[in-house]
């Protein structure tokens, strides 16, 4: 972990220095995560079974979506494949965010155990250390089936695939991942102030995932408004789905919203970063 | 018996200390209940009746499930009975030294926990459902008794299944795989993910008779007064639950005997 700053300093080029400052957390994360991957790889059978278990739970949720659409025919004007696309977008975004940032929800237990103090004295960003803690490749067990479902859904929906649309999709998915990650960090910051807030935070993180797995219009105008303007869950699966399908918003919300994903993602990440700094500045060790 | 009453009371008191976690938990259950309920309402708006269930039946079952989720603790993929960790770590030796049965001790402790959780997390969660949605309430005092009895039996079945998972540690050394598997099967088979009425009828009829259904589906049907219960009424439903509770506890007692004959405690 020592070599990177040395190399940056040696060149003396301000551009390289700036790039180093940006890349440094990424490299740190990569190194820490790799340690955990190697640790988990010591028990390959256990890792494989855990990944399979996560996959099975995703498949159970897909089954629920199929059963629900099977009974209803269409929900909010969405057919079963369109519904599966919404599910795939939500599950893959939350899955990727969970894989990289999900560990931040253990902030409270790190504070209680005193291990957060240990993170603060190390020369690596505490957020990076917290997020990379116990990084487990088993979460791929969630991401991979979600992407497969998304792929199957995209192949079966009635959409004309222009180059623009093909390019928009990854941008929207990346925005979704960033928004999910921001929600994870922002809710974890609550634990700086309220010790037992983890489960309450779950109602936003996992609850948000459950909410975005179905076309949002079924929840009614009030809820869609609040998950658009207060907690930006609508930009994870709902607005991207409307964009891909080129469909008018069933609730008559502005059409410009469906292009706002990347902007919202940057805003959400900035907000989460500010909250993290605020929380960190007000952190008091438990002293144990 | 006095020992068990004391252990029960301690279990209740121990869990009464985590009040903030209780409020947070009830909030989470209520949020998930509301999301599931709204999805089902959208389905029933498209089709008013599915296999004898209407919208308020489905919403009621969602909140029965959310109210019992922390009481039966069957959807947890991590070990949810301290006994599991004590088997793995060897502290179970201390438990076996006590002049009361292992099963009785842990059941008393867990029922204490469950009582507190039911009153202060389950009931508030159900009340949120009552406030926000068209949730059905029991119609007569007899039905209230039947529903409460059903909840007690669901708790006992939930404990017995978790106790059996914990005991598997005597053979498997690390029981976490079994806990994960059971935490995956349970929400689907119990009618927690979706009411079993929405499943294909042939599958639903099989699942209805398995122990997991006795922890959400059967209590919900007793509350709703459905004739799809075994024997066509609440009595049949309670009999099925009681049958599972007794069968699982007898099996648990037998397995405890087998396990204690296997146990080898190192060191000293």
Task: Tell me what the structure shows.
- The complex is a heterodimer of chains A (288) and B (268).
- Chain A has one domain.
- Chain A has 288 residues and is mainly α.
- Chain A is globular.
- The model of chain A is unreliable at 1-8 (pLDDT under 50).
- Chain A has helices at residues 3-11, 14-40, 44-72, 80-101, 107-113, 115-121, 126-132, 140-156, 163-189, 198-212, 221-229, 238-245, 261-281.
- Chain B contains 12 helices and no strands.
- By secondary structure, chain B is mainly alpha-helical.
- Chain B has helices at residues 2-15, 19-46, 55-72, 82-89, 92-97, 102-132, 141-167, 169-172, 176-190, 201-208, 217-224, 234-262.
- Chain B has one domain (2-262).
- The A-B interface holds A 46, 49-50, 53, 56-57, 60-61, 63-64, 67-68, 71-76, 194-200, 202-203, 206-207, 210-211, 214, 218-220, 223 and B 18, 20-21, 23-25, 27-28, 31-32, 35-36, 38-43, 45-47, 50, 77, 177, 180-181, 184, 187-188, 193-194, 198-199.
- Chain B: This is ABC-2 family transporter protein.
- Chain B: The chain crosses the membrane at residues 21-46, 58-78, 118-137, 143-165, 177-199, 234-255.
- Chain B: It comes from Nocardiopsis eucommiae.
- Chain B: Keywords: Membrane, Transmembrane, Transmembrane helix.
- Chain B: Pfam families: ABC2_membrane_6.
